[in-house]
Write a structure and sequence with these properties.
With 91 residues, the chain is mainly α. The chain has one domain (3-89). Helices cover 80% and strands 0% of the residues. It is built from three helices and no strands. The longest helix is centred in the first third of the chain and has 28 residues, at 3-30.
Length: 91
């Protein structure tokens, strides 16, 4: 496997993790149980799971009333897209 294949697998895994933790946190919120810290949700997004956490927000209708999630998750995703485009076309 070359570096791009490894990166693609990593991003796939991180985005699956992003969706899962958003769903898990929503489930825990409904059951009034211990929650996943918001900081953790943002960290997973920042280290590659931005598409998954953003999708999970709307799939599970979770954190959609918090402005810092509504703005922050798409912003992190856009930063990731800009970085990907840069490395794909301008490196």
């Amino acid at each position: 496997m070359d570096i791009y294949q490894i990166l693609a697998v990593y991003l796939l895994i991180m985005n699956i993790v992003g969706i899962i933790i958003m769903g898990l946190d929503k489930h825990r919120a409904k059951k009034n149980r211990w929650r996943i810290p918001e900081k953790t949700l943002f960290i997973v997004s920042a280290i590659g799971g931005s598409a998954g956490t953003w999708a999970g927000m709307y799939l599970f209708r979770h954190k959609t009333k918090h402005w810092y999630f509504v703005i922050g998750m798409p912003l992190i995703f856009m930063i990731h897209v800009v970085i990907a485009v840069y490395f794909a076309f301008f490196r």
